[in-house]
């Protein structure tokens, strides 16, 4: 697979404008759409060069051109399919070859499947497990030494409120996100005091391409947040000194998550099954 690199657009520096480029790299997966694209925009606004990862190369190239124009950073496209277990190794090799210190990893790529487990496509759920769990785990492991090499590194794993309880009807998706939240919380504790910020971001339903990719309304339970709300909340948490390991976005989502863990298991499972019933018919 080729790992094309986008040449930086030469821009004439504006007089008296503050220097934009820090010479630090943010690697963002899922950057072709939705939350990942917005995370890439915000890191670029903060002066980070960005490496944009997803399958749709045309979208990555369009975003790279936009970011170079708007933020004056270098934006590189790294098209790859994260359902290939080897993809994280290729992506890290490509990012390291850029020679820019890697300071940020945003694991945002992910997708959901829905419906009764017995009817789910076994190959699609295998891809879902790899993209949502194996890929962020290996990317985190491979890039952690770079993120730890100087204070101020960030590891942001985009999980979900679906990680807060088992969800019949979207069982595999919920299980993958439970894994990701659990992993990230452990890493938060392991890395305390190192200067690395680790965060499991748990948005509820958010207006992105996610529902279309999933082909189901089962995920759109309750109110749907905007991308801006979710990404702003994430950066507010990242900017707070000593923020916690997990951020659940939205008061109602936090209450629902707490109630799910307190309720008796049979009741909690029955309520969850009703909420995701759009996936069961
Ligand atoms: N939207 C929600 O309601 C919601 C709620 C909670 C959590 N989340 C999480 O937020 C994250 C971002 O999703 P989104 O809402 O922004 O949805 P989205 O607009 O569908 O974006 C998903 C991103 O993941 C990438 N991706 C999917 N499969 C991939 C693969 N095999 N290889 C490489 N990249 C792949 C897609 O890129 P390509 O298709 O170009 O490969 C796309 O950039 C996901 O982890 C999702 O689970 C979303």
TrEMBL record:
Gene3D superfamilies: NAD(P)-binding Rossmann-like Domain. It comes from Cryobacterium glucosi. PANTHER family: NADP-DEPENDENT 3-HYDROXY ACID DEHYDROGENASE YDFG, VERY-LONG-CHAIN 3-OXOOACYL-COA REDUCTASE. Pfam families: adh_short (PF00106). The keyword Oxidoreductase applies. This is SDR family NAD(P)-dependent oxidoreductase. Belongs to the short-chain dehydrogenases/reductases (SDR) family. Signal peptide: none annotated. Keywords: Oxidoreductase. Residues 1-22 are annotated as: Disordered. It comes from the Bacteria.
């Amino acid at each position: 697979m080729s790992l094309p690199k986008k040449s930086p657009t030469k821009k004439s520096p504006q007089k008296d404008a503050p220097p934009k480029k820090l010479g630090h790299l943010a690697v963002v997966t899922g950057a072709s759409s939705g939350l990942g694209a917005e995370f890439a925009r915000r890191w670029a606004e903060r002066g980070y060069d960005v490496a944009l990862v997803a399958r749709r190369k045309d979208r990555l190239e369009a975003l790279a051109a936009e970011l170079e124009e708007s933020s004056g950073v270098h934006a590189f496209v790294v098209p790859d399919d994260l359902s290939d277990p080897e993809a994280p190794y290729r992506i890290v090799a490509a990012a390291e070859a850029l020679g820019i210190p890697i300071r940020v990893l945003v694991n945002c790529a992910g997708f959901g499947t829905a419906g009764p487990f017995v009817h789910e496509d076994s190959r699609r759920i295998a891809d879902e497990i790899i993209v949502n769990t194996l890929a962020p785990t290996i990317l985190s492991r491979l890039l952690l030494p770079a993120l730890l090499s100087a204070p101020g590194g960030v590891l942001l794993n985009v999980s979900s409120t679906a990680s807060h309880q088992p969800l019949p009807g979207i069982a595999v998706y919920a299980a993958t996100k439970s894994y990701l939240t659990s992993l990230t919380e452990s890493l938060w504790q392991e890395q305390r005091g190192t200067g690395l910020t680790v965060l499991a971001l748990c948005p509820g339903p958010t207006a992105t391409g996610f529902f279309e990719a999933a082909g189901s309304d089962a995920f759109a339970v309750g109110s749907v947040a905007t991308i801006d709300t979710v990404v702003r909340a994430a950066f507010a948490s990242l900017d707070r000194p000593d923020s916690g390991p997990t951020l659940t976005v939205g008061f109602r989502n936090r209450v629902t998550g707490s109630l799910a863990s307190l309720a008796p298991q049979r009741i909690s499972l029955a309520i969850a099954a009703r909420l995701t019933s759009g996936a069961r018919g």
